[in-house]
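PROTOCOL LOG
Step 1. Enter all chains and additional molecules of the complex.
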Amino acid sequence: MSKLGQQDLIRLFVMPHTALEYNETQWSSIVQLLRHEKLLARYGHRLADHHLLEELPLSVQHHFNNAMDVTTRHIHQVHHTVKHIHRLLGESYQMIVLKGAAYTLLGDAVSRGRIYSDIDIWVQQSDIAGAEQQLKLTGWFSDEIDDYDDRYYREWAHEIPPMYHGGTGAVLDMHHNIVPPVSGRAVDVSFFTQHIEVTSSGVKVLSLPARTLHSTIHLLFNEECEYALRDLTDLVLMFEQFSLDDWDGYLALAEQTGFAREGVMAIALCQNMLSLSVPEAIAKQAGRIQKKVSTRALVAVYQRIMASSHPLVANRISKVCQRFIWLRGHYLKMPWTLLLYHMMMKAYRSTAQIVLGRHIFTKTDPELLGTLKTGQDVK
Amino acid sequence: MSQLSRFLQAGVHVHPFSDRSGTVLFNEKTTQMLTVFFTQDKLNQVLSDYSQQIPLSADELSMVKSLIRQEFIYQEPLQQAS
Amino acid sequence: MTATYDVLIPPFNFRVQTDIALVEQNLHTLYGQQVLPEGTLPFIDYHIAVRHSTGLRRWFRPQASFFCDQHEPLKPLHLSQAFAMLEWGMNWTIAAHELQHVIVHSGILAKHNQAILFPAPPGSGKSTMSAYLAFNGWRLLSDEMAVIDPETFEAIPFARPICLKNKSIDLARSWFPDAPFSTVAKDTHKGDVIHLSAPLNEDDRFAPARIKGIVFPKYNPDITDIQITQLNQSQAMHELADNAFNFSLMAHRGFKALTHVVEQADSYHIEYRDAADVKAFLEQEVLEYV
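Step 2. Run joint prediction.
Step 3. Record the structure below.
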């Protein structure tokens, strides 16, 4: 049996019929990889849509079903939690639901089998304190975090520390931008006020091109790229919904917000890896930016790191690429003095963790099976 | 259509126990479970009285209020399905 | 040296990796014929590992870490508790992933394919009673996790060693001197614990069983006679749902399954001093003989 890898997962996404080529033992590894990449449920739906899931061995179906069930159950809880938050904040503040929760509210192709653990919302920076206060009155609280992390969030980040709901265990991330202002690349408030749509439940989310751009920035302007293939499949599923106007809107918005390069890189990655077809005019327009050597090189780096972190498939090159993207993410986000401090601090923390074991920075001791009832572990 | 089903919110499941010890409701949106120590007939009666504004006992009223507050039933009955 | 085995614990196949000799040795003692060379089973449901913690902890107060694939869900424990950690890690793995079955934190044993659930908090003497029954003609389906099929409402065996704590360790050793016991894990969050494998009967070890009773046991050394209180279905439902790990995620399938189980079973709260009294009560008054 040849070694399974990134190519198998990509082929399976683009050409689901290849599912029938694998034996049970190979499926064992594919299930393991997909679970690791948080893609088990998404692939499950894709296989089911092509009537292939029922053709697979029962042992394999079992795990796809488990994963799909988690995301299906999650839908109710997300609707419920968003309703609660919206009731609380929606009248006093401008509030937009972002990322995974927005996909779920819309119920579109990206939402099916999409796994996420936090509900992300945007409010204006000046409203953050008030909104946080309001939430704390109704059972939301913030976890204890160390001073360094708190300072990181408050001063430099585009979000505040996550809040948890005492009763339901839901996690809320409140953002005032989509990139840290300290990077100098924060987007203008108009991005959040002019590119919105309203869901059937009356909640505001970003418009399709703006959602797609946000997802693009999340993938390509971040030091973490743990779930890069999941993020890339998000993108392709959104691009596939685009009308010609949406394509124009996406590129214009990318240009306006200063993320033109990321915009075309996302298109290139989806074309190269996931066989996305793009209208000719758009391809031409994107091609002009993509010609630059540095952009092409960066696209190549990203291609290497898709679904490559699991020890089953990791290799030296993919590790180098991940390291490069981590550095680049920090470089993009931090002014130099801050970068040094941040990396030093993180370096100190990781040294301490290597010496003392990983759990030295965890303050509480969760009871062995304590978190299970709320299902928090199914991130 | 029973009184109960006219009031039930979407995603709420009901099971009246055969030993008549009570009726359990489960809301799959909030994943809350609630047992009322009334048979389903009694529950129907209480809800019917409530919707016709017939006065309820203190216990009955507090049960109805809990069911509403915890999003098992609507404040007002739904319109009869046509 | 890292050892890797396929371990067959129906309904799941595990691949277990460990670099701790104590874990390997206990695995063989408790799972015997179910421990197979790596690659024997065609499909692996879960890849788990217990390994020496890295860093200083390798030498200074050495610890063991549990992994479910690349994920480390539990905090490391002292090295001497490594095998207990593997058992708890397996529980975590199943509870965190399985949604095709309702999983209740409960002991479950059967006789004549009629099962009794024993959902009970730690300290209730549940495991001691499970051990007593399992060595006296009953079949252990599970000591900690009852696995219920949401379509048939039957219990599926997920037979794992019984986890005994503190005083019951000596008691069990005196009852069953020749049984396969693990080494003792001292001073865990549950106190001293030991694992014990129940005898297997090849004929019906994989057979599902209909749930006939739900018994909430409580050990009480101060009483003379067994005290039995029958619970009504509403009470039983609430107590049972409290112990169902994946109840909220199973949504209405879980709700439906538990209401069925409660409808088809009789439920009791029992205080007892002697496990033999519980056995007699169950066999004479709860099980049906055909």
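Step 4. Note key features.
The longest helix of chain C spans residues 247-264.
Chain C has two domains: 3-97, 102-161+198-286.
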